[in-house]
Specification:
There is one protein chain. The longest helix is centred in the first third of the chain and has 30 residues. The N and C termini lie far apart (97 Å). Helix 8 packs parallel to helix 14, helix 13 packs across helix 21 and helix 21 packs parallel to helix 22. The N terminus and C terminus are likely disordered. Helix 14 links the parallel strand 13 and strand 14. The chain folds into 5 domains: 113 residues, no CATH class; 80 residues, no CATH class; 337 residues, Thiamin diphosphate (ThDP)-binding fold, Pyr/PP domains (Rossmann fold, 3-Layer(aba) Sandwich), CATH 3.40.50.970; 216 residues, 3-Layer(aba) Sandwich (Rossmann fold); 130 residues, 3-Layer(aba) Sandwich (Rossmann fold). The chain is globular and about 110 Å long. It is an alpha/beta fold. One of its GO terms (biological process) is glycolytic process. Keywords: Calcium, Glycolysis, Magnesium, Metal-binding, Mitochondrion, Oxidoreductase, Thiamine pyrophosphate, Transit peptide. InterPro entries: 2-oxogl_dehyd_N (IPR032106), 2oxoglutarate_DH_E1 (IPR011603), DH_E1 (IPR001017), KGD_C_sf (IPR042179), ODO-1/KGD_C (IPR031717), THDP-binding (IPR029061), Transketolase-like_Pyr-bd (IPR005475). This is 2-oxoglutarate dehydrogenase-like, mitochondrial.
């Protein structure tokens, strides 16, 4: 009994010590008291006390009378007795045992039995943890899905490995008690070791590999074990098999049809993973059965046309007419290639007879950029429907293996999955694992064993499956849908497949993967293999199979004929989220006017009072916040507003009108510059918060303000998706500093700037980008306005016929740099009151948040007032324009520095300062009025940014168009530079002093 060890335990409620009994490198946890029970564990623990007396006492008590011990001890010792050498039973009397010989032999037998049982338990756990490493996942049979041919040493692949567990070949036919952490026994509690190993291999080493033992929730692990270990659980009826075959026929024959008709066209077909279509339909069927009625999907280009045709069920003729090179798009915009477009369709799910809405979100070739967009759109639909648990709306994301492993936005999106203001209550991820990325072998494309390892960061179970086993794929999809419905958490399906052709149909993959593609050319199609299997089983006949194939081929041919009658392609047919109550039936705005954005005095006062108070009783706020609220109250009494109050009024007034407002980003609740404080924290009660904005009115819309994860790419994509769901919401994303939007540039370039042109996708998202040269260094100064202005579509050489609303309708986005709180409030309200939606880019201030001159009166927001695209000089210069010698045009914060300098030099009558508040689309009409007003003055554009940055390159040609090239527009500002700002405070001040001197230098030494 020397290897039995009692491990030091703890006293439980003053009772007997909880002991840990060591045997065979594992432990049993038991109570020392004979009436307490014993339960098995498998985590090794260090032996600290060598003492078997407790076990011997327990054993002696049991031999004297089995009722002396707990029933679990009784079962334990009975098993020992049954396993001992024959002929000893008659000697097992207490008197004989106490003499030592039988006791010693019995305890030796007990030790061996316990060790063997615990060894078997360890073996079972080894398969649960590492069985996926030896699963038969690659349909080609040439690669290891985990990039490693090594077989874990603790899996029994040969008889000699039994020795690792202290077992041998003779033990294969011994029966062992099964632990409660496995379901391989079904209704049986014991199994021979040989059968245990066979069932473990069937569960974990076949065509399905399951990664789940890293999940730190026992119930979830047990749920997964039950789904994959229970004998005979993966069964399909003949009807289900026929449905699966029919779906596989549609998936395969669709690709074959396109290949025949357009052999030289890129289509990014699904060949090699045709099982994706029945997989998605199985997920949707199972989810529909659990109550889901809206599914939002995102995917890369491979297989998109097939998904549109056979999952979303877009009309085939509309897909086929996309291949006609002579077609011209009927709607505005450039359009996009067919394998980037999205779709929205409401139909009946034939398996459940329930209505279901399917959306596929359009996205560019930035493969994973759509992930957070889909999540945001899903969250919005759940929010507007009150679906807090995700029981009605869900998302499915499809990925390629190389992109899933390689693109950081995947990680960012996963880390949003369980944040309160971002969770979609579980997403089903389907990875189309081609085992290649374009031409790059996975062994040089990732460092992780699997492309799916990133999902482990949120404890998402990962189901690897051989895509050439359709029934295994269908089962995994069922389990994934059940998991999402049960636990509301993400889950990943890794479809290990291959790519029958190259990256696209014109590519030659033999250049770089000759051995793989030799095997692929020999690989039998999955449809052929599965149809032959079902014919052999008698599920279908050959004639029935051929008839089903002919039936779908006929559907495709008829749609092809019909597609030739389509004279014009309507891109609007491809909308992924239409707003039928917002636009006309033709997709046009219902009017081309904008309501005034001013407000009644009582509304201003009411919002101001709430903004400067705490609506909850007995709520203790920080003294610093108290000072801020008192300052707001003083402003309200004087009918004044600063930047924070102007924003508060904009949000509050929209909430009154039923407009949901959502502000998201890093530290937005307080505000990076500690100016906002939209969420108040009780200083004495943990987690007690107050959002005064939600206490403004009865029956108001809700206000959501949420600090985000430290992400720009993922969070901006999420908010963009949220803004897609409804036009009746103001959705804002604020960068911590404007500079930081550069890590979200992909979303800005691919979705926000060009989204409407490519996909007819109106979107009213607002970007708040803190901007201003204040000596804070190159990474905390510039929001890079030049980038946004370079991508604006208005023509610098053409003055439009219509302005304001019409001009806004024609642009791709709106770029503003407001200099007053009132104008900031107006532009936010205008964003909702416009009859259409355009992205709004606002360069927000930092120092102006508390600048004493950056104030507005309530009169500036009075009824009938509106956003000022340009603010003229209203001082002496504006009143006597004929005397003005110089007109300085500028935008944003630099106005206050120019005004200060003008005051110091007493040049009120000589120099006019005019502010462009809306930079794009350019206010040609208002600029023209100002230029004509100051006929004798020279024109200057002054900016604080470097000459090769900021606004100059955008405004200069437009100013020249206004003056018909009869007058120059001079530049005043910083010289060209590589970095957007200096990090040296002294240098910053010297630069400022230099261009201030230049701006008011009457000798005309300007840079043209």
């Amino acid at each position: 009994m020397s290897q039995f060890r009692v491990l030091a335990g703890v006293l439980k409620g003053g009772g007997s010590p909880l002991l840990r009994l060591r045997a065979g490198g594992l432990t049993w946890r038991c109570w020392a008291h004979p009436k307490r029970g014993c339960s098995s564990r498998t985590d090794p623990l260090p032996a600290v006390v060598s003492n078997s007396s407790y076990v011997e006492e327990m054993y002696l008590a049991w031999l004297d009378d089995h009722k002396n011990v707990h029933k679990s001890w009784d079962s334990f010792f009975r098993n020992i007795q049954a396993s001992g050498p024959s002929g000893e039973a008659g000697e097992r009397r207490p008197s004989a045992l106490l003499q030592g010989r039988v006791l010693s032999r019995s305890l030796d037998v007990a030790e061996k039995v316990v060790e063997d049982h615990l060894a078997v338990h360890t073996l079972i756990r080894a398969y649960q943890i590492r069985g996926h490493h030896v699963a038969q996942l690659d349909p080609l049979g040439i690669l290891d899905a985990d990039l490693d041919s090594f077989v874990p040493s603790d899996l029994i692949t040969t008889i000699d490995k039994l020795g690792l567990y202290g077992l041998n070949e003779s033990d294969l036919d011994r029966s062992f008690q099964l632990p409660h952490t496995t379901f391989i026994g079904g209704q049986e509690t014991t199994l021979p070791l040989r059968e245990i190993i066979r069932r473990l291999e069937a569960s974990y080493c076949g065509h399905i590999g399951v990664e789940f033992m890293f999940i730190n929730n026992v119930n979830q692990c047990q749920w997964i074990r039950q789904k994959f270990e229970t004998p005979g659980i993966m069964q399909f009826t003949n009807a289900e098999k026929r449905t699966l075959l029919a779906r596989l026929i549609r998936s395969t024959r669709f690709e074959d049809f396109l290949a025949r008709k357009w052999s030289s066209e890129k289509r990014f077909g699904l060949e090699g993973c045709e099982v994706l279509i029945p997989a998605l339909k199985t997920i949707i069927d199972k989810s529909s059965a659990s109550g889901i009625d809206s599914v939002i999907m995102g995917m890369p280009h491979r297989g998109r046309l097939n998904v549109l045709a056979n999952v979303i069920r877009k009309d085939l003729d509309q897909i086929f007419c996309q291949f006609d090179p002579k077609l011209e798009a009927a709607d505005e915009g450039s359009g996009d290639v067919k394998y980037h477009l999205g779709m929205y369709h409401e139909r009946i799910n034939r398996e459940t007879d329930k209505n279901i809405t399917l959306s596929l979100v359009a996205n560019p070739s930035h493969l994973e950029a759509v992930d957070p967009v889909v999540q945001g759109k899903t969250k919005a639909e759940q929010f507007y429907r009150g679906d807090t648990q995700g029981k009605k709306v869900m998302s499915i994301l499809m990925h390629g293996d190389a992109a899933f492993a390689g693109q950081g936005v995947v990680y960012e999106t996963f880390h949003l999955s369980e944040l309160p203001s971002y969770t979609t209550n579980g997403t089903i991820h389907v990875v189309v694992n081609n085992q290649i990325g374009f031409t790059t072998d996975p062994r040089v494309a990732r460092s992780s064993p699997y492309p799916t390892d990133v999902a482990r960061v949120v404890n998402a179970p990962i189901f690897h499956v051989n895509a050439d086993d359709p029934e295994a794929v269908m089962y995994v999809c069922r389990v994934a849908a059940e998991w999402r419905a049960t636990f509301n958490k993400d889950v990943v399906i890794d479809l290990v497949c291959y790519r029958r052709f190259g990256h696209n149909e014109m590519d030659e993959p033999m250049f770089t993967q000759p051995l793989m593609y030799k095997q692929i050319h020999r690989q039998e199609h999955v449809l052929k293999k599965y149809s032959e299997k079902l014919i052999a089983e008698g599920v279908v006949t050959l004639q029935e199979f051929e008839e089903e194939v002919a039936k779908y081929d006929k559907i495709c041919e008829e749609a092809y004929t019909s597609s030739k009658d389509e004279k014009i392609l309507h891109i609007r047919h491809w909308l992924d989220s239409p707003w039928p109550d917002f636009f006309t039936a033709q997709g046009e705005p219902k009017s081309m006017s904008c309501l005034p954005t001013g407000l009644d005095e009582e509304v201003l006062q009411h919002i101001g009072q709430i903004a400067s108070s705490v609506p909850l009783e007995d709520f203790k706020i920080h003294p610093g916040v108290s000072r801020i609220l008192r300052g707001r109250a003083d402003l309200v009494k004087s009918r004044q507003m600063d930047w924070a109050l102007g924003e508060y009024i904009a949000f509050g007034s929209l909430l009154k009108d039923g407009i949901h407002v959502r502000l998201s980003g890093q530290d937005v609740e307080r505000g990076t510059f500690s100016h906002r404080h939209h969420v108040l924290h009780d200083q004495e009660v943990d987690k007690r918060i107050c959002v005064p904005m939600n206490h403004l009115w009865e029956n108001q819309a809700s206000y959501t303000v949420c600090n985000s994860s430290l992400s720009e790419y993922g969070v901006l994509g999420f908010e963009l998706g949220f803004a897609m769901a409804s036009p009746n919401a103001l959705i804002l994303w604020e960068a911590q500093f404007g500079d930081f939007h550069n890590t979200a540039q992909c979303i800005i370039d691919q979705f926000i700037s060009s989204g409407q042109a490519k996909w007819v996708r109106n979107n009213g998202i607002v970007l708040l980008l803190p901007h201003g040269m204040e000596g804070m260094g190159p990474e905390h100064s510039s929001a890079r306005p030049e980038r946004f202005l370079q991508m604006t579509k208005d023509d610098p050489d053409h003055i439009p016929v219509y302005f304001e609303v019409h001009q806004l309708y024609d642009c791709n986005w709106i770029v503003v740099n407001c200099s007053t709180p009132a104008n900031y409030c107006h532009v936010l309200r205008r964003q909702i009151l416009l009859p259409f939606r355009k992205p709004l880019i606002i360069f927000t201030p930092k120092s102006l948040l508390r600048h004493p001159d950056a104030r507005s009166g309530f009169d500036d927001l009075a009824k009938g007032t509106k956003f000022k695209r340009l603010i003229p000089d209203e001082g002496p210069a504006g009143q006597s324009p004929g005397q003005v010698k110089r007109v300085i045009f500028c935008t944003g914060k630099v106005y206050y520095e120019l005004a200060k300098e003008r005051k110091q030099q007493n040049l009120y009558r000589d120099v006019a300062i005019i502010r462009l508040e809306q930079i794009s689309p350019f206010p040609f009409d208002l600029v023209s009025e100002e230029v004509e007003k100051y006929t004798n003055a020279e024109l200057v554009w002054c900016q604080e940014e470097h000459k090769n940055m900021g606004y100059y390159d955008y405004v200069r040609p437009r100013f020249l168009t206004v003056v018909a090239n009869k007058k120059p527009i001079w530049y005043v500002g910083r010289d060209p530079a590589a970095a957007p700002a200096t990090g040296n405070k002294s240098t910053h001040l010297n630069e400022l002093r230099k261009f201030m001197d230049t701006a008011f230098n009457m000798k005309g030494h300007f840079i043209s």
